[in-house]
What does this fold into?
Amino acid sequence: MTIKIASVDSVILYFDQIISEEVLERVQSTYIILKELNGVIDIIPSYCSILIQYDLCIYDYRSIQEAITKRLSTHQSTTIAKQNKLIRIPTLYEEGLDLERVAQCNHLTIEEVIRLHTQTIYRVYAIGFIVGFAFLASVNEKIATPRLSTPRAKVPKGSVAIADRQTAIYPQDSAGGWNIIGHTAFDAFEQFSIGDSVQFVRV
Amino acid sequence: MGFEVLNGGIFTTVQDLGRFGSMHLGVTQSGVMDEYAYGWSQKLLDNQNCNALEIMAGLKLKATSPTHMSLCGADLEFKRNGISQPMWQTHRVQRGDILSFDKRVSGQRAYLAVKEGFDVPNKYGSYATTLKEGIGSKLQKGDFLPFASYDENRMTCRVKQTYIPDYQKSVILRIVLSYQEEYFSQKEQEKFFSSSYEITLESDRMGYRLKGAPITPTKAGIISEAIAFGSVQIPKDGQPIVLLKERQTIGGYPKIGTVLPIDCFKLAQAAIGSSVKFEAIEIVEAQEKMKSIYSIFT
It folds into this structure.
């Protein structure tokens, strides 16, 4: 891990710049340790980085880096497993507008697509784009499907969708280019935290 | 007790310093585009970071009870009962007064604060309006902005002339090289710092899109990461975007660095078509500059 200046009052922690479960675990444990650091205004983890905005009245660009390094060396993240939630998403696949296309694209039956999508336990790699939108990975290669060439002007809230090897749930009506394969009534998007496990359950 | 909105104007919203501690949920920070002018609006009234109106001309209000208010920022031809009044000072408001902001003379955004702020809903610890998140809305005719009546005698307070900015047609943006600076070769950096960019029409509270010499990074994309205030993102067309208060929380375009907040505030007061130049600044000096600005208000 390296620490780099991001702005006048923020630094960014970089981990290996690859999307992998191993890196995710390190991001998650580092995030859990550092979010309690005094003088942190915002802390935003993503796939393989963590941005930390700090209070300029407490730190300068050097002392924040020392504080981060010190806290990481004195705190062991033994409690992470307990914080790692498994969130189940009841999903109605019959309502997926693109379900048939995803099946055709990958030379599978609809039943196989549903089976492969519900089989994997996904992890939250990042949250953003819109409030509560969690990027979940990794989707089985057999059902990975590229984004629509023309995004839809409106994807309804609760749509369960796939883009390449990622899957997600739209937390509100929004424009979007992901392939919609189902719908959920799940509405607790603020629960998602980086590293959480998520499984889709057919209803 | 409050203001009746007779005309909501182009884009008037309630703002404060913004929403902090929720970016990890995808919630943008939002808040006032010009913290400097807003800061003075608070200091003049002895307010502690209360909410204020961010006004972009066309607004017309009627007071239904007395208060003290302050006005700082852009010159929007402010009139009380049809008579021009100065900016950067407090004004006593009487019941029945009509306040109007007819057109932009200089600057883009003015801040109107009342003693102790407006009594409007708070979400995630802030009053900042963010339309794309469905938090608050822009003011419209018929809206009512409640505030506590304030009728004590109070001296008129003014901002000293030396602290009042002169909104220019050209802006220098000092930038701390950071993030993916190594994706920008010596040659591309020279081009970036020697070129003039123009502020385009596609500039808003989310970010200011600039037009000029295209900059080419060695890689077109990165794995999405969080975006700090003032980040200069270089998308595929090579035209820089300065990301401001309503920026997306994470994104996948390379960033050459971040603009000093005080210069972002100046940018927020610059009109479409104004010219912008970038200048590098070292972190030590950047932090000193920002601390001296913040010390005015604390």
